[in-house]
Amino acid sequence: MAEELTDDQEHGLSFPTSIGTSDRTTIRLLGQDLAEDLMGKVGFGELAYWLVAGRRPTPGQVRVLEAVLVALADHGFTPTAIAARLTYLSAPESLQGAIAAGLLGGGSRFLGVTEDCGRFLADVLAGLDTHPDDDAGWDEVALAAVRDARAAKRLLPGLGHPVHKDVDPRTPVLIRIADEEGLRGPHLRLFEAIGRVHPQVLGRTLPLNGAGVCGAALADLDLPVDLLRGFALLARTAGLLGHLAEERRNPLGMEIYRTVDRNARYVPPATD
User: Fold this and answer.
1) Which of 5, 101, 103, 171 is the most buried (most CB within 10 A)?
2) Which CATH number fits domain 107-227: 1.10.230.10, 1.10.630.10, 3.40.50.150, 1.10.10.60?
3) What tens digit of pLDDT does each residue of 172-198 get?
């Protein structure tokens, strides 16, 4: 007996996906049985990579990705955390709104640097016929890239940090982990070279920051550079959830609001 078609199928409607689907008794995700094959057997970072890349990561790729997620989870009272806390103060019934408020602040100054750096490095590498064999060759490529950016008056993503003026402690650790896993690829090599040569052009030495090295590491995992910000936001979601949990235990949102409000100073608008 032929299988009975739904009305939509009879009219030719089709919405293909390789992510997931479900029926009355099972849930399928990435071609696997969610309950039997994935739950308790696959870590969340591994699953996130698999969902984005469409292929299961190696253990080494999982280790590097997990290190990136930990590195980007929280940096204290950043604007994203403050936005989340103040939104929670205004609407404590909307946890999702508070988290969303924090994530919406992920841009060119906070969190977005991860993608910006990965994209910058990928663009430089796309212009090469071959990759250098040694540090001297990478330094040459990096020097040209820094000079081009300076001539175009573009900021170099991944350089400098408002707190860590000498060394961002995350950077050497992530490079070491990638190296241990055989994943210190061209994006990280170029990023390191930029760290070595940029003083020749800028006239000062800036640290390679953690957001930048995370972008380089993620790009070396063969993840789409256009989606790298998503991994930064994924990591920061955990940090924001922690801030909101702390806000429940030890509220600071009202104090932050009152401090700003009580110190607000009216300035008459400028007149022509």
Assistant:
1) 171
2) 1.10.230.10
3) 999 999 999 999 999 999 999 999 999
